[in-house]
Write a structure and sequence with these properties.
Oligomer: single chain
CATH topology: MetI-like fold
Helix content: 55-70%
Number of domains: 1
CATH class: Mainly Alpha
Strand content: under 5%
Strand order of the largest sheet: 1-2
CATH architecture: Orthogonal Bundle
Length: 377
Amino acid sequence: MSEVLAASEAAATDVSVPAAPGARPFWRRLRAQRAALVAAVVVALLVLVALAAPLLTALEGQDPTTYHPGLIDSARGGVPVGSFGGAGADHWLGVEPQTGRDLFARLVYGARVSLGVALAATVVQIALGVTVGVAAALGNRWVDQLLSRLTDIIVAMPLMIMSLALLAIVPQSFPRPVLVALVIGLIAWGNIAKIVRAQTLTLKGLDHVAAARLSGWGAWRIARRELLPGLAAPVITYAALLVPTNIAVEAALSFLGVGVKPPTPSWGQMLTAADVWYQAAPQYLLFPAGALFVTVVALTVLGDGVRTALDPRAASRLRVGTGRKREAGAETPDTAAGPRTAGTDPRPRTAGTDPQPRKAGTGAEARAAGTDKEETA
């Protein structure tokens, strides 16, 4: 009976999205996923390169904005002088056609711009989404309807078209990386608001939240003390998956000419500049495209790993310390010993022994006794 009550209580407190586990279980579950570990190493290296961009370019002795006309062959249409795009000791990856700007310096500074814009846009999206979602769940019926309809409108807006329209009408004097981050963040917060609202409605029906409301706590105190800790897991999970999307959006906007403007380097801007030269010199396209591809894939895999590590139900299917997926039931003593058929005895037996020993000849004696009784009758 106690087991049934415990199971019913666990089912009643289960929510649709994961709750945040402790720090140690989270790291154990994350380390159990090899793909997520590799992705985390790649992301850490990318962040390190972005932060150390001034140091790396100083070691090379170049910067991302200086033109080198002496390294360009004007007679050949602006192709860099030398083999492999002018790569050498002074320019590790060569120089750009027509401009002569150092390709390595622009690549590492482009990582700083792309990651910075994506992270800033993610912060704006999370801030707006959490605020609107919690307000809609805790407000009255009219507030909920108003904010829910506003969220539906935001979700229905095409991100690229609205970004193109907004970026085209803003004056060029406004700092472009900041503008791109604000535009992406202000347009794409609808999905996180829906997730937060649904999770807040689930948490609002739990006993500890109801007890806080009956104790006279205000809505802000309830949200800060009781709801926000329960929202940490879905918000962190969604934020980890938003960053690669925002990097791709920033690159697309810069590629279309409305994102980050020259001379500020950006991977999307480098793809635009390499559009003319990809057949004659494919390395000018491969370097920024490869960096963009690796970054987006690594962040996506890491985001999926974070989601699995924060989800106790998914993590229960991982055998922590082995890195291999196993069924949760495989760890129980009964199933670990292998399946047993009905009626078998779990106690070990020696070969040839019988659990119910019988005396030799008892069968023959019983038959003889039965024969004597028949003759007497």
